Amino acid sequence: MENKNFVFGHKKPDTDSIASAISMANLQTNIGSYSESYRLGNINRETEYALKTFGVKQPELLEHVNENDNVIMVDSNEFTQSVEGIENANIKMIVDHHRLNLQTTNPVFCMAEPVGCTSTILYKLYKQNDITITPEMAGIMLSAIVSDTLLFKSPTCTDQDTFIAGKLSDIAGLDMYDYGYRLLKAGTNLDGYTAKEIINTDSKPFEKEGIKFVISQVNSADVDSVFEKQNELETAIENEILLNNLDCYVFMVTDILKASSKVIVLGNRRDVFEKAYNTKLCNNTAILEGVVSRKKQVLPKVLDAIN
Amino acid sequence: MENKNFVFGHKKPDTDSIASAISMANLQTNIGSYSESYRLGNINRETEYALKTFGVKQPELLEHVNENDNVIMVDSNEFTQSVEGIENANIKMIVDHHRLNLQTTNPVFCMAEPVGCTSTILYKLYKQNDITITPEMAGIMLSAIVSDTLLFKSPTCTDQDTFIAGKLSDIAGLDMYDYGYRLLKAGTNLDGYTAKEIINTDSKPFEKEGIKFVISQVNSADVDSVFEKQNELETAIENEILLNNLDCYVFMVTDILKASSKVIVLGNRRDVFEKAYNTKLCNNTAILEGVVSRKKQVLPKVLDAIN
User: Fold this and answer.
1) A162 & A199 share domain
2) Are residue B13 and residue B70 in the same domain, yes or no?
3) Do A100 and B112 count as a contact with CB atoms less than 8 A apart?
4) Residue of A nearest to B109 (CA)
5) A211 φ, ψ to 5°?
6) Are B150 and B128 in contact (CB under 8 A)?
7) CB contact (8 A) between residue A106 and residue B99
C-alpha cells in the first residue's frame, strides 16, 4: 500500500488552512490516495465555530514531517510558513492562492490561482475528479471562502469565489450571508484572549533582502476595544521581535464592516512600513483606510518598499 | 484594451517550448485575452520539421521583456532559463511540467503537473475552457509530446501523455507512431552542425550551493558518429566553461532507440557527476545505461550529489 499523504495548510492556521486540509484529504482519499488532514497550530474561534456547526472533527496537530513523507500543501507553498522537515519531504501536490515562493527537487502537481480562497480551487478539483461534495464538506469549504473574503468584501474576492460560495451554500442548505455573518462574528470575539494570543492569532513571517518581518492580522467588529490593550499588545510584540530576531512587526486590526485597518508597527525597520505607505507612524500606529487584505494590500507594498 | 500577453517557453527552445507557446497563445486569444507566442532562441531541426508539417509559422524571437509586460510562462518557471527582464514583468500564468523554482510578488495562475510534456497539460486547459483544438494545433501539440517523451519511451512519459497524444493524433489525422518516428529522426540529424551548435542545441544552466553547471542534451540515432567529433566537442565545451564561469558541464548524447546516454563531462567539479553516478569518467566520458531524461534521471542525482 502506498504511504498516506499528510495534508496541511500553514502555521497559525486560519479557517481556509484547516478547511482546505480537511476537504483535500477527503477528496484524495475518495480518489484512492489515502490522506489525512493535519493542523500546524491551534485553531481559532472562527474555525472552531465552523467545525462545530457542521460536525466536523478537528484535525490532529502535526509538529514535523520525516524525510520522504508524502505531503500535500494547501493554502500555502512557502517553506518558512510550513511544517518542520518540509524541505526533505516528498511534496506531491500544492493547491494554493498565494504568491509562489518555493523550490522543489522534482516536478509536482501545483494548482494555484489568484482567487480569494483555496477552497474555491478545491471545489473545482472536486468537479474535475467527479467526486460528490457532502453537506459537511460544503459547509466548511463555504466557511473558508466567507473567512478569506470577509463575506465577499475583501479586494481579494473574485466572481469565482462568490459563485462557488453560492453553490456550496446550496449543498450545505443554508443562507450564506446569514451564516457568514454569524461565522465572522464568532471569529472576531477576542474576549478572554491574552495580548500574546491576540497577536499570534494569524501572524505570518516573511523575509526579503535579509529583512525579517511579521505581518499579523485580527478582525474585529470593535477596533477601539482592541486598542484599549495597546500597551499589552506592544509588550507582546516586542517579545516576539526579540525572540525571533525580527526587524519589523506589523500588527493589523481589521474592521470588516468599515473596510479599514488600524496597525501597530514596531521594530528597528519601521521605516520600511512608513515608506510603503508614505506615512508617519503616530504613537506606533496608523490607520489604513480601505485596507483589509494582508496578501493583496500590505505584503506587496512592504516587499516593494524593501526593494 | 488590455495589453497583450507575451507567451514563451525556455531559452534554447525545444519542440515543447515552441509548441506550448503557440498553443497557449492561441487558447488565450480564443478566450479573449489577446496573446502572442515568442521563442527565446533559434528553433531546432525537429521543431522546424513539426512547424513545416502542420503549416504553422515560427514565433518571433523575444530578446527581453519590459517592466510590467504581461507574460505567460510555458514549459518553464525558472527565471534563470527565461527571458531578460522576467523579474520585473507581470507574470500572469505559468503552465509547466518541471520542478518549481520561482518567487512571484503576487498570486498567479499556475498549473503544473508531473507529466511528460507541457502540451499534455494544455490539452486539458483547452477542454476546461471548451475551446476547439484545430488540426494544426493538434499536430504541433502532438509533436511536443512525441519529442518530450521520446515517442513514449522516456521514464517521464505518463499514461496521460500517451492517452492525450492519441486524442491529438486523431484530430490531426495521422498515425502518431509513424509521424513520431519521422519527427524524431528529423530532430537527430546533426549533419552540417558545428560542435558549438551541437552542444548548444538544448543546454540548460543550473546553480546550487554556488556550483554553476550546465546539462546539455542531444538525441541521436548514431551516437558513435557524434563521438567522432569528441575533440571538437570538448573544445566547444571548454569555451562555454570559460565564457560562463562554469564548474561543470555535462553533455549527454542520448540514443533514443537503445534508451541509453553517452556523456562528456568537463570542468573543475566533475567529481559531482562522478559522485552522482558512483562512477569514474574514462577519457572524460561515461555510458549511462537506461538514462534518457535529463530532468528525471540526471538533474535530481546531480543536485543530490551537491548536497
Assistant:
1) no
2) yes
3) no
4) A113
5) -95, 120
6) no
7) yes
3-class DSSP assignment, residue B52: helix
B35, B161: one domain = yes
Q: For B42-175, where are the alpha helices, taking DSSP H only? A: 45-54, 118-128, 135-148, 159-172
Residues B111-149 have pLDDT tens digits of 999 999 999 999 999 999 999 999 999 999 999 999 999
- Which of B105, B112, B304 is nearest residue A107 as measured by Cβ atoms? B112
Residue of A95, A106, A127 to mutate when probing chain B, most B C-beta within 10 A: A106
What SS3 state is found at B129?
Answer: coil
**How many Cβ atoms from other residues are within 10 Å of residue A223's Cβ?**
18
A204 and A105 part of one domain = no
Say if residue B135 is in the same domain as residue B176. Answer: yes
> 0.90 cut: is pTM over it?
no
Q: How confident is the model at residue A1 (pLDDT cuts 50, 70, 90)?
A: very low
> Which residues in chain B are closer than 8 Å to A90, comparing Cβ atoms?
none
Flag if A112 and B114 touch (Cβ within 8 Å): no
Q: Give the Cα separation of B112 and B103 in Å (integer).
A: 15
User: Which member of B98, B104, B108 has the closest CB to residue A107?
Assistant: B98
Residues 75-104 of B with CB under 8 A from A: 94, 97-104
Q: Do B181 and B223 belong to one domain?
A: no
Judge contact between B277 and B301, C-beta under 8 A. Answer: yes
Q: Do B100 and A113 touch (CB under 8 A)?
A: no
Looking at the fold, whether A176 and A226 belong to one and the same domain comes out as no
Widest CA span of chain B, in angstroms? 60
Q: Pick from B132, B167, B186: which residue ends a domain?
A: B186
Across the interface, of A98, A101, A105, the residue whose CB is closest to B99 is A105
β pairing state of A260-266 and A248-255: antiparallel
CATH at residue B228:
3.10.310.20
Report the 10 Å Cβ neighbour count for B224: 10
**B125 inside 8 A of chain A by CB:** no
d(Cα A15, Cα A20) in Å, to the nearest integer? 8
Residue B133: which residues within 8 A CB-CB, separation 6 or more? B123, B126, B141, B168, B171
Q: Does A129 touch chain B (CB under 8 A)?
A: no
> pLDDT tens across A50-96, in order?
999 999 999 999 999 999 999 999 999 999 999 999 999 999 999 99
CB within 8 A of A267, min separation 6: which ones? A213, A241, A246, A247, A248, A249
Q: Are residues A50 and A150 in the same domain?
A: yes
Count: domains in chain B: 2
Across the interface, which of B98, B110, B296 has its CB nearest the CB of A100? B110
Q: Per residue in A89-145, pLDDT tens?
A: 999 999 999 999 988 989 999 999 999 999 999 999 999 999 999 999 999 999 999
**Selected residues 281-300 of chain A with any CB under 8 Å from a CB in chain B:** 295-296, 300
> Which residue, of B125, B152, B186, is where some domain finishes?
B186
Q: Is the minimum CB–CB distance between B113 and chain A shorter than 8 Å? A: yes
Closest by Cβ to B112, choosing from A101, A103, A109: A109
CATH code, B44:
3.90.1640.10
CB distance from B208 to chain A under 8 Å? no
Q: Which domain holds residue A213?
A: 195-305
